[in-house]
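PROTOCOL LOG
Step 1. Enter all chains and additional molecules of the complex.
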Amino acid sequence: MTIILDGASLTIQSLIDITHHQAQIEISEEAFERLKSSRTLVFKLSESDVPIYGFTVGVGWNKDKKVFGRYFAEYNRNLIYAHCVSVGPYLKEEETRAVMVSRLNALLSGRTGIQLEVVEMYKAFLNAGIHPRIPSRGSVGEADIANLSHIGLAMLGEGEVDYKGRIVPAADALMAEGLKPVVLGPKDGLSIVSSSALAAGTGAIVLDQALKVVEIANAVYALSVEGLDGNITPLRPEPNMARGMPSQSACAAQLRGMLSGSYLEKKGISKTLQDPLSFRCVAGIHGAVLDAIEYVHRFLAIHLNATDDNPCIIPESEEIISCCNFEITNWVLGFEMLGQALAHLSRSACHRTIKLSDPYFTGLSRFLSPDEGVVQAFQTIQKPFTALDAEIRHLINPVSTDYYSVAGEIEDHATNAPFVVQKTAKIIDNLYYILGIEALHAAQAVDLRRVTAHGKGSKVLYESLRDAVPFLEQDRPLSYDIQKAYEVLTDSSLIESIRKTAGTLMPENW
Amino acid sequence: MTIILDGASLTIQSLIDITHHQAQIEISEEAFERLKSSRTLVFKLSESDVPIYGFTVGVGWNKDKKVFGRYFAEYNRNLIYAHCVSVGPYLKEEETRAVMVSRLNALLSGRTGIQLEVVEMYKAFLNAGIHPRIPSRGSVGEADIANLSHIGLAMLGEGEVDYKGRIVPAADALMAEGLKPVVLGPKDGLSIVSSSALAAGTGAIVLDQALKVVEIANAVYALSVEGLDGNITPLRPEPNMARGMPSQSACAAQLRGMLSGSYLEKKGISKTLQDPLSFRCVAGIHGAVLDAIEYVHRFLAIHLNATDDNPCIIPESEEIISCCNFEITNWVLGFEMLGQALAHLSRSACHRTIKLSDPYFTGLSRFLSPDEGVVQAFQTIQKPFTALDAEIRHLINPVSTDYYSVAGEIEDHATNAPFVVQKTAKIIDNLYYILGIEALHAAQAVDLRRVTAHGKGSKVLYESLRDAVPFLEQDRPLSYDIQKAYEVLTDSSLIESIRKTAGTLMPENW
Amino acid sequence: MTIILDGASLTIQSLIDITHHQAQIEISEEAFERLKSSRTLVFKLSESDVPIYGFTVGVGWNKDKKVFGRYFAEYNRNLIYAHCVSVGPYLKEEETRAVMVSRLNALLSGRTGIQLEVVEMYKAFLNAGIHPRIPSRGSVGEADIANLSHIGLAMLGEGEVDYKGRIVPAADALMAEGLKPVVLGPKDGLSIVSSSALAAGTGAIVLDQALKVVEIANAVYALSVEGLDGNITPLRPEPNMARGMPSQSACAAQLRGMLSGSYLEKKGISKTLQDPLSFRCVAGIHGAVLDAIEYVHRFLAIHLNATDDNPCIIPESEEIISCCNFEITNWVLGFEMLGQALAHLSRSACHRTIKLSDPYFTGLSRFLSPDEGVVQAFQTIQKPFTALDAEIRHLINPVSTDYYSVAGEIEDHATNAPFVVQKTAKIIDNLYYILGIEALHAAQAVDLRRVTAHGKGSKVLYESLRDAVPFLEQDRPLSYDIQKAYEVLTDSSLIESIRKTAGTLMPENW
Amino acid sequence: MTIILDGASLTIQSLIDITHHQAQIEISEEAFERLKSSRTLVFKLSESDVPIYGFTVGVGWNKDKKVFGRYFAEYNRNLIYAHCVSVGPYLKEEETRAVMVSRLNALLSGRTGIQLEVVEMYKAFLNAGIHPRIPSRGSVGEADIANLSHIGLAMLGEGEVDYKGRIVPAADALMAEGLKPVVLGPKDGLSIVSSSALAAGTGAIVLDQALKVVEIANAVYALSVEGLDGNITPLRPEPNMARGMPSQSACAAQLRGMLSGSYLEKKGISKTLQDPLSFRCVAGIHGAVLDAIEYVHRFLAIHLNATDDNPCIIPESEEIISCCNFEITNWVLGFEMLGQALAHLSRSACHRTIKLSDPYFTGLSRFLSPDEGVVQAFQTIQKPFTALDAEIRHLINPVSTDYYSVAGEIEDHATNAPFVVQKTAKIIDNLYYILGIEALHAAQAVDLRRVTAHGKGSKVLYESLRDAVPFLEQDRPLSYDIQKAYEVLTDSSLIESIRKTAGTLMPENW
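Step 2. Run joint prediction.
Step 3. Record the structure below.
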């Protein structure tokens, strides 16, 4: 699989192909032409008297200090060194790849004037699997300069990289691949570091995970409502059309697909008339997550295909001008909102799971015990999932405004973007445990209820889960069951099967 | 001014005309026809055996209790009584109007089967200015039943209303207007209370305020950057187009409009090359607020023109079915995001104001004193605006997931929507103080700098402010100046002048 | 009643006597002697060359500017003006009194060198009831300089005061009382403003309210557990002694006092064996509030009787040295903890109230209806109290670390103390509504249960409540009942009766 | 080293000796006698008709189900199984030890009636180094039943343990040590799981770390103030005594000890008169941390030496009664407060570090560069430490009230204690990075200033740091320096040297 990067058409899907499925990349010719003419402009301007940030003058507070042409290589190397200030833990391989592809594609917009050898190095690193070790923390989310510098370090043949499964000196990996360290020229240091590629790259991965977890949650819901013997009329098209919220309608449609063929389809209005809101409102709640995903997607897709640094080359007028193109507040806040939407999804899952334990709502045994007086079954398991939900409640507290005024008070705005993205990833991870526990309950309930006519989607989930975790006949340590359920839900084969069977919520141009 | 409500075309603007400018309302004929046929269906179904929530059976946990036809009036009156449980303070007049118009327009979708006399009563209340006293707190944001009931109470001729500037018994106001109390029939109680009209109506007002505060903030920025003698190249179209974020470009465009004619237009790149981010990133930061506003607007506009209650009449199949159409999680989270975006706007305003006090950045005197050794000027004023910003930081903490499982554990999802809206209103109010203080600094700075060539927008603001607050020649108690600046900024004439002069950011179909 | 202030023995109780019960104050002779000798030292040092903060040099960033002796009056008046920067709403009368008495008592420690006429003015203002109008917001909690300045303004005969129930110019009130405006001398401005008296004074009031609300909550609990027909063995001394937590034991003891004579005393272990934790853990949860109160009290009592400003006179060595005696982080964090403890109290009250509505736990009717099919009773009331609890959940979010670096980056630490105190007050106010609703349930439950043998404390509460709110025989608008219950619980006569009947939790030296 | 456990005298220090330094334990004879007589009582009561929670009847919602004597072994084994529901990651070895010693010591109070063989097993596990694998998450902090069960599992010879550095089946480790799996009898299951030993044990470790980090922070401060050439008069005893806050005075005293001999001692009042508050207020801010530590310590010390479960044996009256002795809200809130206090410490460290980079405050070069135009030095490093501080700001958000009502609505109060403890540990870990970076600045500053006369404590720190990280002569990747500084600060030898040199803040009876 080969993906052509052109600075304009990178999608979440193609990014994931590169980061997770090792797709090879090419750079489009047009992009190369843009890079060349920008580089030419850089050299032209380097002889002018106009001060240009990070180029003919220093960066940050040091913008009042001139950088002389003869020191370009030294200055830019020092800039890389002085920016290598991030703190562990290191990024995972796919995250490092996402950072590199995000930075590379933005460079292809031709707005930085970076030298072509550096651009080629990104491509070489990605295609050869040379992954610089990047400590993940230390960016305040207004250009991830403290982290991206570690990519520059590796390109200089210094520091360490993760290469073919081992941690080796960057110089060794370069040599093994026949690559020569780059020699930085004017403006190259800043072009490497001045970007939000850490947040954007890891954000793209997390956004993809968020979409998947909604669809998995829909499948779990489908099994749960079967376990409850619940009322699925709220999923009918008519009331949802009357409401007019597109995402609610879309979720209801996927859920109808998942429940297609289920015994619940044949029931009229159930005797309970209305199930608890955690069941009844599923299309609206999961729809709110979808809306948040689409919000982030709208802006992140723009971000991945545009310059995100400062200053900006204006080819028409042959200028390099200061700007605020690293600004990402809109999509960072989108991630904060997404976290809150996922927290609603989480709470609903928790409440559904509690209901599935309760004979008043299910008509089944207490705690879904196969033998109430003897087997304690899901008696204590309400603690772990509510405890994990409490962590989610904590994670959704906002952090984007909690920055300092630094660099001689010049950098007095920030977003804490990488941490916001990381919080979202943690929310999703916890959610898989919570949904796993819900699925354990749902499967136990349908077994106790001897459901045979599953919906198409709930059947896929049920069978995958029962392959890994048998019916709870007697008490056994459940920590292991929880872990297995987590693994079933996060296995990529499940989401693929579900999408194949019941359709997907994936937005256009994903 | 008369506005025709039809259940489908209510905009923020027309709502504001009704709530703040006393526009009279009419109800479209089509809407009336829908209401009639729904009511007919209600009577038809009341004779069937199908249990219908809040109609032939009780509400909440009492959905297992049958409601007999002969008790419809008594049952529905009791339902209104039992739902009058909200807690003060009372809504303001314009808020009460917004709640009524929001509920009325949703009823016109014909999904509730409410009797026409009740619908007429909403219209009469709005047109005659009968405003039921509604205690504002007590809703968990999943249908504002505890508050909307107070409108029903007034329609029954009970409780109190605000009428022609006085608090009088509802019965007196009805009599004065020649209105008879309604006699509730089947399903009427639920149709009155089962709606998020409190959150939606007050939300519409707050959303309008949010848009205005961004534009005011742009005007204040324009004056500040003149006060700083700052660099406005980041507002040029080229770098913003390179970035491609529509809202950033839109803000930059309005700001260019505001600064059109300013002395800053003639300067090249300033000697400082790049101003602090609080100045440089204004288009991106204010753009993020705009994006959040558009997100809320998209869904709130749907909400205001669709059913938001349960159950839902499906005329095609002559059914009333349970659903989750009161679901509003998506736009409630939008308000939470909007609050966070406004917090960024606030912090930037604070940092700009600090910079305007600092000779290092302005080249002017310390604390903008007209006589440094003698006049202390804006020495201590940094405390109040940062203290108000700390309140904003506190207000943006999320609250939508903090609900209980109530009503016999059936209501296990909620949003705390009215409180979220109210938090946003408080953020905006604080912001006007913060921006007022920024404007005091900016005006002092341009005076010290003897700026004469203002931009078109900054000139409007400067002159309005200087009409109310003179140059700080000697120390004086500044609490009064702050209050006056707040009043200048919140006066509707200012936003009108600014929009007239420099264009508006108002989205389509507002 | 007359209270002698000496700078060393002010208690919460005596402060409340002054603020709420108009006790007159005297100043001890020893304190006067200290003031005199400090003032003498000030004049002595004013002739030396040693720079002294806010005295011979300016304040804040202006500490590098010399203040010349001949300008002392003008400089100090300007200092007062420039510090009048706080923002409304205005403090209430008792709060203003608390601020003045707090500041006055700290001045008596003789650490500021303030002139005696100013000290006399505090006393005159308190004794004559001249209350300067102080806008409440604008302090970052590191000396409330922006607010305390308004007291100085009134002493200068400027600004407005609240005097004998009317808002009048300060000059008029001074004249009416035969007082002459003060003429400020060296260091007086700073001595008036450099103090955390706003936070400390209002904090003392709030702390007293916190103690009362715990005791009221204990009384409400006692009535609730009677309504539940619950198990009171967890209140027995033995298990609490086994635990060894003093506050848990103290709460259990007060609760035993409240329940002394109750029908519950005669029951053995109830058939339910263990009540829900919201009932069972009451002594521990309320004990945690007590512990937080004692923590704040310990440090606030020190604060009220010591200098809280900078610089500090050292009489032994005849120096005035810079220090950090305005530091209050420890007790501000105590207030944050107290808020969280109260939130636990609130949640438990909410859960108890939900249980009292539930036949499964009470054996009574659903929603405590006197006639289940006909009267809806406390069906919807679960929304308001959980909504108010959600506000409390929001209020407990911390704010003390959210400050800026201001005043030329010199003031880079703060606490937001006044806002923290105000948050706590709001929590307590909401709590009274929540507890009021619990009390309504508890009273209804004991009536349905026909309890006659109340405990001593629950009887006091029951009778007070039933004087204001009758048994719910038929549905009626409950907003009014809620308001009445709130008034019963906040009326000072109730807490007095309860303390008289069942003892108090008031700590030593309160 | 051998420590005798008696249920009454376990201190933080002795716990650390057991957990970190492998001290062997013995059980006192008196404790054994108590255990025996409690066990006798259990058997006696097992024949009575009185229902006893978790003994003759089930736990949680199942308290309405009888447990018959002949099923005691099976019931209790099932109880262990059904409670093994916690979620990874696993506890670290020293944490597992802390959990076991905490549970064991509480059992020795003789309030549970556990069989002696189980008690012996705790001792054997600790002394032989058999460490059950305990997934760390899943407790809501109201008895850590979901986690402690895993200890029971290992005692049954099931599940896995960490033994001599390897993960092995529990059965293998038992066999290797000649231990036989326990056979559970009446009440044993509950006695193993019903305790907050996870939170208390790990909490004791974290509390010890909190104390250490304050003292390390004092040492870093001492070096920083030397780097600043700052004013240390605020540390003098006189102004601190005037204030009267014991913890502020204690910190000032330790700081004077650390700075004893420093060149700063000889200076009079510096020309800057007053340093920024981040420097000046150190004694008050660090004192606030100390106060929070003492608050937690007071209650945790009680907790570690008392029963923390339910029900409770009352030997005097031969009863087992339901109670709330697992209640820990007071000290959980103490940890929340401690986190907030540490956040203040963190922010001050960040602000001090910013100041050390700023020539305006230091008189040294910008970013402490040894050659301003050429070496960029600490230019970018302000991002990582403020980013880590933003994480701390996020971590201090409260979580203790965010619980559900579970177990058939009976468990409607909780504290999330283990997560609160874990948050505090994370705060401390981040703090060490932040302080490490401050120390790098401080050392660079004293080197640039050519300080030779260090204080006693600052000298210890300076030398330890310079052994690991040389002076920054030229730009180099600083991530490595940061990591080394972190290691220097967390190395136990440093805290020991500092305490030896300058005294300790360790409270009495630690």
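Step 4. Note key features.
Chain D has two domains: 2-195, 206-304+337-502.
Chain D touches chain A through 76 residues (CB under 8 Å).
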